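Data availability (excerpt). The following record was deposited with the supplementary files.
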Amino acid sequence: MTSQNKDDESTSKNKENRRGRSILKDVAKARKENRKFEVGWNNRDQPIDPNKTKFSSYLGLVAKTMVPITIDDWKTTPQHIKDSVWTDVTQAFEIDESRMKYVLGKVGELARSFRKQLGKLVHDEEGNINDQPPPKYASIISLDEWTEFVSMRTSEEFQRLSDENRARASGYTHKYRKSRLGYAQLEQNMLREMGTDATYVPRHELWMAARLHATGDIMDENVQQVWDECVSVSESVTQGEHLPPDQDILLKALKSAEHPGRVRAVGYGVTKGEYFPRLPRKKEARVPTDEFEAMKKELVHLRSMVEKNNQYCESLRGEKRGDASKSDKDSCPPIIPEGVTPCDLYTNNPTYHLVGRGSVYNQLGDTLHNRPLPPEHVRVGVEIVLDGNAPLPVPNEDAGLLLLDDALGAHVAWPIGLIDLKIKQFQQPNEHDKDTIPTKESVASGNEISVQKPVNLYGSSDKVPYLTFLHTYVKDSLTRQWDVPMPKEIFNEEYTELLSHSDIYEIINHEWLGSCTICVYVRLLYNLLLVPNMWVSRFCFINPTKIGPEYTQQSQYIGQTFIERDQPNTLFLSPYNTGDHWMLVVVNPTTEIVYYLDSLGVNIGQRQQLRRMFDNAIKIYRANKGTKVSKVKFSNIKWTMIKCPTQDNGSDCGYYVLRYMKEILLCSQEGVIPHEYFSTYRLEKYSTELIDEVKQEWCRYVLETIITNK
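Predicted structure:
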């Protein structure tokens, strides 16, 4: 080793020793004064200024002095050592308990780096094994520890793994050039230089900035190639190219997959599962046992109906022969209960088949349209038409009732032998019906509190097919557009939503939903939940038509809504459309917590435009209230990704948002949404029945409240 090299090494060691002694001196002084250092954290829960360097260096000292070098895997470290590490760090720095995972994980990583550094000192310059600990660390490493460490590092197994790792690392061609700065602090510095309200720097820009020489030049051809590719992909995205949810500009430019345990160019503490979405797995379709049993019962029912048809046809033949006694004997008309009973409607003209559904009214006397009902006939209200061209058994030419299509919504006479009664008696939903859902107060007291309107907002027994009713109504309607008045209490502005045929057919045909369809369901929630339960001050909505990607001033609109509807712990529900996907953002401006519900499971790190929009809105609200926030916490708005049900197709996102909103209104207490979601709806995905439930509610509301003004 040359004299110059020895001088350089000595200078480097002296600088490190001075830095370590200085940090220990500062920490010791602060502890003596019962004072802790404050640390800043970015939106990814990574440390930044102030005191980022001091904090990181202190973690390095803790890793060297408190973690034995004989522990080769942090996962096997005894819990009492981890507890001691956490206690020591929190005595020196002001850190919330939610940061424990980061702190302990970082100490484990630094301990591994220290062992790697010591590994280079196992042999001296001549290649002989050093049997004594390095003098520099003799005060913290005992002879027994060093002996065991040397034995581990000189084993054949370790040498094999070391050679493999060295060969793997030799293929890395994109050198990081920011020394101890780290990506989190680099991003903070770049944001400060930008001087805007931005809360993040795109990952590919961080990657490129971290590989610039101190002169600002690119010194490596491989880095230049990736740089050029990043610029090209970025331009394509700007022009409208869509990347898959599990890919971004840097990943496409590098053309190599991410490591399962970390993400490049974002720094320690961010995993692949947190940064990129986990796409739902498609399961093999199988017929459930209960459905199979239902099919068997349906087969038995059909056989019973065939037998009934044979009996009825035999009775008709008896009538034609004038043999009344035979007709009476062979026909077995069902017993009609008093009241209103749902039924299926059949005809035998020209063949026996199901033509519609309705209800038998055995409560209005034995006349129909001022005429006596024919013998063996009952009054039937036609509610669903399955075969519109089927002739009515008893036509009424005066009223224009000839075919079943003509009788939709009307009462007609129907032969008893051609109806199939349902077991349950049909009852019109009672607007005073109540259901019981658990609330925070009920859990605490052990009693259930009755909340107006059940989970099925129109009543849990409501089985009327309003989707079919609505379809039948609008397909021949001359009206092409309906007004939907929106009170100011909903979106903080009074206006009229225009509902068109195409909007209605989005629900009927189970298509991708538009903004108007979403807004109509919000109006339904307002009518059926907010007003009856006096929840108008607890919940407010952000109009999705005002915050789409094509609009400007989104943050100002959202922030102004926060200000004008300011109440403690009010939740603001905001359906948001990226252009091809719906998601729900729920904000509690009082606590500065943003709840993020995405049916694709895409990490909020992939939705930076959305995040920036709501962060800026909260800052506008904060400034209006005159809330003073330290520079450390100025951008520390907490985003919580809710583990909500996720879709397994490409079209249900709008329906999932409808259910999210409904369930939040029913279950949220004191402006909080649990990270694991509400226990009642903690599902992998929504069933068809749950999706159909909101569709039926939407159709009934449109049919009864908007179209017919009931």
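Summary of structural features: The two ends are 95 Å apart (CA to CA).
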